[in-house]
Prior knowledge:
The protein is of the alpha/beta class. The protein has 26 helices and 19 strands.
Amino acid sequence: MIYDRFQEKAIGHIRDGHSVIVSAPTGAGKTVIAEYVIEDCLAKGTRCVYTAPIKALSNQKFRDFQGSYEKKIGILTGDVSINPSAPILIMTTEIFRNKLLEEKESLKDYSWIIFDEIHYLDDYERGTVWEESLIFLPSHMKMLALSATIPNIDEFAKWLSTIHKMPLKVVKEKERPVPLHFFYQCQGQIADSLNDLKRIGYKNNLSHSYHDRSYHKYDHLKPNRPTSLVRYLYDNNQLPCIYFSFGRRRCEYLAQEMHGFDLLNPDEKRRIKELYGELCNRFELASEKSTAMIAPLIERGIAYHHAGMLPTLKEVVERLFTSRLIKVIFTTETFALGINMPARTVIFDELKKFYGRGFEILKTRDFYQMAGRSGRRGIDTEGFVISRINPHRISYQQLHNIIYGRPEEVRSKFNASYATVLNLYEKYGEKLYNIYPLSFHCFQEKKQHQKRALDLLRSRVAILKQLGCIRKNRITEKGAFASRIYGYELGLSELYSKGMLEHLSETELGILCLGFVFEPKKGITSPRLDKKTKTLARTTDSVIADIQRMEKRFRIRPLSKQCFFDLTPCLEAWMRGVSFENILNYTDTDEGEVIRYFRMSTQLLREILDAPVSAKLKIRLKKALSLINHGIIDAERQLRVQ
């Protein structure tokens, strides 16, 4: 195989026995380097771990690698465990981190770890998992870290070299093999440069705030019709296209707006109907309403894809897209994350998205993560990126900063969970505070912020002591239980210590776990709950309220999550054997979300099952698992379909 310069350089370092960090644009070919490590491990009879940031990406990598390496691939994601002793083991970063803390011996035969999308380290909610994984990386494991373009990659590498004393090489690539050409839709016209866009949409007073409507001459903007944009792509041979929108309903609405288009020739139309029917039968989707709803669009070469859909239907759409029979797909941003689905053109519906607390202008790094899906290597000579621009919603300077700005640095989000703290305390006792100086946070931040982080760690230990998880500098039985429950440790360990879990039925155990993981969306109507569930809700509300009061006193953020029992009627019906289609009558929640939360509840049930609980409780936990994890909820079943 002929490698690009940066690929050859990285592989040369790997051959020389070095760990490597690769920073390169989306679509540059970083996966080729990961495949070299995997094949090298198999050839030498050693083992390799491949971590991915989300379960969907882990699942896709499992399918991809299964085709190349067959039974030598395994996967662990919390709700899936297939071939867990395989020499090449794919897992989410959370699972890898948990193994490092709880069962490090299980990794002794693995010589390499591949971290895909390592820039996820600065994700507000989950970034600390990457940092913890890197801090506790075993000395016998070499590392390949793959990242989008980040400007402080050298700082990141220096930190790793400092804490591990490992020979570490950095490989940076700025160019894409397929260059990108940027266009803008504004005032119903297509501009092929920012200067052209300035003439069309931004007239005078460009220094004014974009909230000031007087800064350009247009009080009434001409519409940017998505239909005319797709017509433009069709006429200019710029399909297939990935159209990014940051709302599920918007994706479906836009797809339905294209009903007047037929983007397939007669042969393609015949092939896609046959393939869609075959895949729907294979994934047992033929009788699903959502399958019938999207079918007329698919037969025209149009589809949508988002987290609210059935996971199996999403996979069918992905397979149709890779067959090159889908010409336009309307999708949310997760389609850009590592999933190898390139197109000729990428469209941005808008350049704002929700960042945790509110809608903000798109980050440069996120823009290029998505834009990088345009331009298919070996097929296209350039990729086309079209942004729909409303001058009332984004200023010229903000747009310029997105396109030509410096990608954002990776900043540490280190914030060890209670379970992590307990696992560290069991090993290091009061010396666990010596762990913080090893963090990227300590390496990056000034003394004031370092002190605050260390105070937060001390506060977590203080709460764990007050709650009886640590006594006389030792982990108690309650603490041992909490150390296995990542994210929900305090609430569940309180219920466990009060003996409540021992008295719950199989159904109530499922309801409780679902209550802990579920997060209702604004505007969703809460259902009426039966007497038993109301009692359970009052108990959990009281327990969590006490914990949150304690956390507020110690200035700990984020607070432990509240329980929400909105999906209880759905789960009860499912555990009684009611069909999935019929349980959806009990909720306004999207079917894909229902499946996701049911799967999350099974993962939590498994974590409790792995904790030191009584034999009688284990029996009921296993029964609860079997009543929930069947049919469409069973994630393993989906992965076993070829």
